[in-house]
Backbone:
């Protein structure tokens, strides 16, 4: 019997979320060719492979599902259902499917019902071995990836060859892990690790030199780290290195940057235009990451926000609804804080017990998780656990009410709404001129 040679084609997929509204929003507002981390796999793949990347592809046709290829699918909980559907169709077509990411790492046996192999943890340490096993047709069911301290250097030269326009759309991820350990977050194995500073700055220079915008505008770099300020020392060196480039940038940060005026001064000089800060709760002492700088109330939040804004940096505040200590009255307090906070924009999510988080284990032990339908773990449209002081419906209604209030007091939303009104008015005006024959 003749053995079919392995086709050297690698197809990498980051599935879209299962919720159609979120999928369409991502399609129009976040149309990046891939995530930064997804590019790490091609960098470690042996030469000779043809590589295709599908990032949150919305519509699949029968011809997309080819056979005799190696297919890698990375997913979290919210898009695992979609990932499994895609995996099933590729296997049916005759391809070998490998899955990785947070959800398959926690539920490998669930994932193996839909794929041939699962990478547990980070893939960098095992990917070359996995590809060799695939070529030799000795693929194992699981590969245990160990966190590498210097995880980025083996991929660095590959990133230097990526089209700078692609890197610009993707954004830069300069770290893994976070210095805090919130129970609702899925922890990173290996702790906080950082891309070497010279490598980070060289990638920024590549974008600066390779991306040309109209009217002489400089590109705005998006740093997609969980917390750009996880290491204050690294952050300050990064900001100092960015300053001579005369760029603008935005990123995520923890609130403790508000108490480091040296860091804020350097951030301003380096072109920082906005920071996304996870406040999460109106009770700072309830979380490790907000109980800093002697903060104990929303008044302390407001002082911190004012200090950041004094450096010309806009602040987007993120809050989670559904904590056990929240009663109906607390959501009124949250709305009052949002009204007087001075935040540029506001991001809200519903508390969701993602697998592998401490929250998931606790609520599961308490019998309060109401569904394991992973399609509903979107943090926006479904309450998947029983809140402590109200019904699930009440929490969902509070989410809508607080969200509406947050939009109405958000300068960003007001600016966008006025811009849209102006566009509609101009369209109506010019249409009228055309119809009247004056134009």
Residues:
């Amino acid at each position: 019997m003749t053995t079919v040679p392995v086709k050297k084609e690698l197809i990498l997929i980051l599935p879209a979320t299962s919720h159609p509204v979120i999928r369409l929003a991502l399609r129009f507002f976040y149309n990046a060719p891939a995530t930064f981390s997804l590019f790490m796999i091609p960098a470690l793949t042996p030469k000779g492979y043809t590589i295709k990347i599908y990032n949150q592809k919305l519509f699949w046709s029968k011809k997309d599902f080819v056979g005799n290829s190696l297919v890698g699918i990375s997913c979290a909980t919210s898009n695992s259902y979609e990932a499994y559907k895609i995996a099933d169709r590729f296997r049916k077509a005759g391809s070998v499917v490998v899955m990785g990411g947070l959800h398959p790492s926690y539920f490998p046996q669930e994932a193996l019902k839909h794929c041939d192999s699962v990478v547990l943890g980070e893939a960098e340490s095992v990917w070359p071995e996995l590809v060799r096993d695939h070529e030799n047709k000795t693929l194992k069911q699981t590969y245990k990836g160990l966190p590498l301290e210097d995880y980025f250097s083996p991929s660095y030269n590959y990133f230097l060859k990526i089209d700078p326009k692609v890197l610009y759309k993707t954004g830069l991820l300069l770290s893994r892990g976070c210095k805090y350990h919130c129970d609702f977050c899925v922890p990173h194995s290996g702790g906080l690790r950082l891309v070497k500073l010279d490598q980070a700055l060289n990638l920024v220079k590549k974008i600066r030199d390779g991306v040309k915008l109209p009217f002489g505008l400089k590109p705005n770099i998006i740093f997609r780290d969980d917390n750009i300020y996880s290491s204050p020392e690294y952050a300050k060196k990064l900001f100092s290195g960015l300053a001579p480039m005369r760029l603008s940038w935005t990123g995520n940060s923890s609130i403790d940057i508000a108490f480091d005026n040296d860091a804020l001064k350097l951030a301003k000089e380096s072109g920082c235009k906005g920071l996304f800060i996870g406040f999460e709760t109106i009770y700072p002492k309830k979380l490790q990451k907000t109980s800093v700088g002697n903060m104990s109330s929303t008044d302390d939040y407001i002082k911190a926000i004012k200090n950041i804004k004094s450096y010309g940096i806009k602040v987007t505040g993120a809050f989670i609804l559904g904590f056990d200590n929240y009663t109906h009255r607390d959501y009124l307090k949250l709305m009052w804080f949002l009204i007087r906070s001075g935040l540029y924009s506001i991001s809200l999510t519903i508390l969701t017990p993602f697998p592998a988080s401490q929250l998931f284990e606790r609520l599961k032990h308490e019998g309060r998780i109401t569904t394991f339908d992973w399609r509903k773990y979107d943090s926006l449209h479904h309450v998947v656990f029983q809140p402590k002081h109200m019904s699930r419906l009440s929490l969902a209604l509070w989410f809508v009410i607080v969200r509406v209030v947050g939009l109405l007091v958000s300068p960003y939303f007001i600016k966008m709404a006025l811009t849209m009104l102006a566009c509609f008015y101009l369209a109506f005006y010019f249409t009228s001129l055309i119809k009247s024959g004056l134009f």
Q: What stands out?
A: The longest strand covers residues 272-280. DSSP finds 16 helices and 13 strands in the chain.
